[in-house]
Amino acid sequence: MTAKSTHKAIEETKERTFKGIGVSPGICIGKAYRVDTGGVEVVKKYQIEDDGLVEEANRFKTAVRKAGDELQALIDSSRNKFNGHTPILETHQVLLKDKMLYRRTLDTIEKEKINAEWALRKVTGILKSMFQELDDPYLRERAVDVEQVSERILRNLVGVDAINISEIDRRVILVAEELSPAETSEINLERIKGFITDRGGMTSHTGIIARTLEIPTVLGMGNITRHIENDDLIIVDGLQGLVIVHPREQTILKYEERGYQYEQFKAEIIRDSFCEAQTVDGIDIKIMGNIELPEEVVTVRDHGGDGIGLYRTEFQYMNRLKAPSEDELFEKYRDVVEVMAGKPVTIRTLDINGDKAMSGNPESTEPNPAMGLRGIRFCLQRPDIFTSQLRAILRAAAYGEVRLLLPMISNCAEIKETRRLLAEAADALKIEGTPFNLDIKIGIMVEVPATVIMADVIAEHVDFFSIGTNDLIQYTLAVDRGNPEVAHLYHPLHPAVLRMLERVTKVAAEKKIEVYMCGEMAGDLVYVPILLGLGLNELSMSPQAIPMVKCFIRTLNLEEAREFLQDILSVHSAGEIRQMVYHRYGDRMARMMAEPPLTQQTRETQSI
Ligand code: PEP
Ligand code: MG
User: Fold this and answer.
1) Which of these three, 113, 137, 158, is where a domain ends?
2) Residue 608 has pLDDT above 50, yes or no
3) What is the number of the ligand 1 atom nearest to the C-alpha of 469?
4) Backbone dihedral region of 466: left (phi > 0), alpha (psi from -120 to 50 degrees) or beta?
C-alpha cells in the first residue's frame, strides 16, 4: 500500500455519521466550535497573610473591572443587530458592582483572610440561596444571574477564557451539550452557520428559535459532544437530522450540491408565498407566522404570512432583573401591529416558566416546572406584571387587529379573572385618557387535556381556540417535549392526540367559535392534510415553514382530506396512520421538500 492510499484509507474510516433530530432545515459545512457552558470547576482555598490582603482585594477589583469591560464590549457589539437585545448583559453589569456581591466578597477576603476566588464562591453561594428562598418566583430565578456574573469574575481571576457565543468571531458550527433558549437567541447570524446539541428536540424552545433564525440545526444527538473536537470539519444536515464528522471529499461535494439545491428551491417557493393558500377545490386557508421576538415580524411578512398567529411575548421578560415596563411592551407590540398593516396579530400573554425560564438553570426551585407556576397561573399570581402587559396590549390594539391569547388555561375561572383584570385595565386607561381598544377577540391556548374535555363549557367564555399541540401532546402522552430520551414516544399522530383534536374542532364548530392551531404540528407537511380534514382553516407556524405549507396546500383537495381523516380515525396505531399519510401524500410532500421521495423511515427517525 502506498503512503497516499494509506492516508486515503485512514481518511475514509474517519468519516462518521450521527443521527439526531433535524429541527431546522438546510445544510452547512464548516469547522466545529465547542461551547462548554460550564464554568471554572475547581477553586482552591488558601489563606492570605495580613500584608497580602490589600493586594488580594485589588486582584478581585481588577477581575471585576475586566468583567465589566467584557460586558460593555458585548453590549456595544450586540446593539443594532437583529438579535441584539441586551437586557441580560445590562443586568449583569448592575450585579457586578452590587453591594451584596462586590462589598461582601471584599469583606470576606479581609475578615477571613482567604483568597478572592474562595471568598467569591462563598458569597455567591449565600446570595444564591437567599434569592432561591424568595417568595417571588421572578426574583427567585435571578439566582442564575448571580451565578453567571460570579463565573465571569472568577474566570478573570483565574485567567480562564470565557466562551461567549456572541463573542465568536469566525464562521463556525456550534457544538454544545445544550443551549438555553436565551443563549440561542444571542446567536450572531453572521457568524454561526449551524448548531448541534446533545439535548433538545423538535418542539423544545431552542428548536423553535433555531427555525426562526433559519440556521441548519440538529438537536437531540445524545452524546455528539464526545465525538467532536474544536475545528473538526463537520456537515450539518438539518433536513435529515444528520451530522457527518470528518466527511470524505466525495461526501462534501454531495452535500454542497444538496445545500445549493435546497437554497434554490427555497428561493422559488418564497416567491410564490405571497399568493394565498387555496386548496384545489377552492377553500382558502390562512397561513400565519409564530414569532418570539418582535423583530421577526418582518420575516413573517417576507415569507408571505397572512398574519401573526402566535406572538410568544415571554422572551422580553427573560434574562432581566425587572419585568419590562408597560411603555416598553406597548412600543414593541405597536411595531408588530404596524408592520402587519391590518393583518391580525395574536398576542399571547406571558407564558413564562416551564422550559423557558428554567433552561440553563440547573437549580430550578420548582420540582416539576412543566406542571408548575407557568403561563396564566404565574400571571394571575402577579396581577401587577399581568396588568401592565394587558394595558400594553389594549393600547397596541388601537393600531390594528389584535387578538388576545391566554396560555395554559385549564379552567373557566382563569378566563373570568383575566377578563376582570382586562376590564379594570380598560377603565383605568379610559380615565387617564390613554388611547386603547377593548374591542378585541379573546381566545385561549388549548394545550391542557382538561381543557379539551371541558371545551364545550370553556367555549362559552371565549371567541376562539388556538390549539397548542407542543404542550397538548406532551401533557396527553406524558412525554417531555424537550427530552430526547423519550422523543420516540412523542407522536402527534397518536390516536389519543387525534381524538383530542377532533373533539376541539367539533366543539368549536358546534359553538360557532373559531379554531386555529399554533403548535409546531401546524407547520409540518405530514400533518397538514389531517388538519385540513379536521376543519382547521388557520394554521400558524415558524415563518420559514409558511412558503412550503402554502405550496403544499395548493395541491390538496379539502373533500379528499375529510374522507382521509375518517379513514385514519378508525386506525389505532400512530405508525399505521403515518404509513397511510405517506402512502396517500408522500410523493406530493417529497416534491415540496426538494428531497428524494420520503420514506417513512427517514422521517420517523426524526422523532415525531
Ligand atoms: C404549544 O404548546 O403548542 C405552543 C404553541 O406554545 P409553546 O410552544 O410556546 O409552549
Ligand atoms: Mg405551549
Assistant:
1) 158
2) no
3) 3
4) beta
Which ligand lies nearest the alpha carbon of 473?
1
List the catalytic residues.
Answer: 205, 518
Residues listed for the chain: 608
Which of 470, 516, 527, 539 for mutating ligand 1's site (highest number of atoms within 8 Å of CB)?
470
Q: How far apart are the first and last CA of the chain?
A: 47
Q: What pLDDT, on a 0 to 100 scale, did the predictor assign at position 162? A: 54
| Ligand 1 near 181 CB (within 6 A) | no
Whole-structure pTM value = 0.71
List, in sequence order, every residue forming a beta bridge with 35; answer none if it has no partner. Answer: 176
Total domains in the chain come to 3
Instruction: Quote the ligand 2 centre to 315 CA distance (angstroms).
Output: 14
Q: Which of 253, 272, 250 is nearest to 261 (CA)?
A: 253
Q: Burial-class residue 398 by CB neighbours within 10 Å (0-12, 13-18, 19+).
A: middle
Q: Given this model, what pLDDT does residue 6 score?
A: 45
Planar angle of CA 391, 395, 399, nearest 5 degrees: 155
Q: Is the minimum distance from the CB of 56 to ligand 1 under 6 angstroms?
A: no
Tens-digit pLDDT profile for residues 446-474: 999 999 999 999 999 999 999 999 999 99
Residue 264 domain flag: no
